[in-house]
Design a protein that fits this description.
Layout lengths: L1 H25 L3 E5 L9 H8 L2 H5 L2 E4 L8 H6 L5 E5 H9 L4 E6 L6 E6 L14 E5 L5 H10 L4 E5 L4 H4 L5 E5 L3 H7 L7 E5 L10 E6 H27 L1 H14 L6 H15 L13 H15 L7 H4 L6
Parallel strand pairs: 1-2, 1-3, 6-7, 6-8
Antiparallel strand pairs: 3-10, 4-10, 5-8, 5-9
């Protein structure tokens, strides 16, 4: 009987602790985050921060949702279905120019992975030979930089909208395709073309090295949920740091997310993507910390938008970027 007398209070203590833990988790403020594309290694850091509990450790409950290939993440933001989203820097600036009051709260990518690709068999060896040609571009957005480059060069291009495959390029239905180094470029190689059969035109080589993936929310969300957003950003950066030193685990998490979304999950391609994305996240010698946006990059992007649209930005850097890391 003595053993049971000792056991019963201990059991009560365990139940109490479990109840407190569940209550604490239930009380965590919630954020809904929508990356700008379908599940893939481009977003590994977010998945890991969720899987490893980094978000909850920081004090925020995060749900991750994805748009479809034909639906832009901005629609999820403006409809209230997401609290924050990821967008290319120049896309975020373009959206703000259209009157949507959003702010950048963190710049994950620090470099551009955009390029045009052509087959050598097409005879297109120089950028100016794209004049008068058909170029594939994503239907779901992210067209600001390609169109700005073409507008600056004054080329006449027929833009062909594409959902998410490289099939039209492979079948010679277009002369060139807009691709990401970490994604569609590798898909083309996996479809049977060797790198020496392709010509590439990286936008960074033409003065368009504009950072890409950044984190955005509405200004009202920033004002009302600033502590939660800061926790989200810090835990996200921790997720990316973990991915960099645990790549095999990161790939397992990514492939699981893709399978749950009923997407083709090619480990070799996702490994390529993860490695390239991690390179883009590293600021290198830019003199800025991870997760921070440089004002000079903002100015560069604003200049590109001005060249494309002939409209100067209607806001200042301080109105656009709100640092949560200082």
């Amino acid at each position: 009987m003595r053993r049971w007398n000792h056991f019963i209070p201990n059991l009560g203590m365990i139940v109490l602790l479990l109840s407190c833990s569940l209550f604490t988790q239930a009380q965590l403020p919630k954020l809904v985050f929508a990356p700008q594309w379908l599940p893939q290694a481009q977003f590994a850091g977010y998945y890991i921060a969720q899987e490893k509990g980094f978000y909850k450790e920081a004090g925020v409950d995060v749900e991750i949702i994805h748009p479809s290939a034909s639906l832009q993440a901005t629609s999820l933001l403006t409809s209230g279905k997401a609290d924050l989203i990821s967008l290319f820097l120049i896309t975020g600036m373009s959206v703000k120019n259209q009157g949507i009051e959003l702010v950048n709260i963190g710049q994950i990518s620090q470099h551009s992975a955009l390029l045009f690709v052509t087959k050598k068999s097409s005879g297109i060896e120089q950028l100016n030979q794209l004049d008068g040609k058909k170029i594939g571009i994503w239907k779901s957005g992210f067209d600001e930089v390609p169109k700005a480059l073409i507008a600056e060069k004054k080329y006449h291009i027929e833009w062909i909208p594409i959902l998410s495959t490289v099939n039209l390029f492979m079948m010679d239905g277009i002369d060139a395709m807009t691709v990401m180094l970490y994604n569609e470029y590798d898909q083309i190689i996996n479809c049977g073309l060797n790198e020496n059969e392709l010509n590439t035109f990286p936008f960074a080589n033409y003065g368009y090295d504009v950072p890409e993936d950044g984190l955005y929310c509405l200004k009202s969300t920033y004002e009302n949920k600033k502590p939660e957003l800061k926790k989200f950003l810090q835990a996200t950066l921790k997720g990316w740091e973990y991915a960099a030193v645990n790549k095999e685990y990161a790939l397992e998490v990514v492939l699981k997310r893709m399978q749950l979304a009923h997407l083709p999950a090619n480990k070799v391609h996702q490994e390529w993507m993860l490695n390239k994305v991690l390179e883009l996240i590293n600021p290198g010698n830019k003199g800025v910390a991870r997760g921070e946006l440089m004002e000079s990059d903002f100015v560069k992007a604003a200049d590109i938008l001005s060249k494309r649209d002939g409209i100067k930005s209607k806001y200042l850097f301080a109105d656009f970027y709100q640092s949560l890391l200082k």
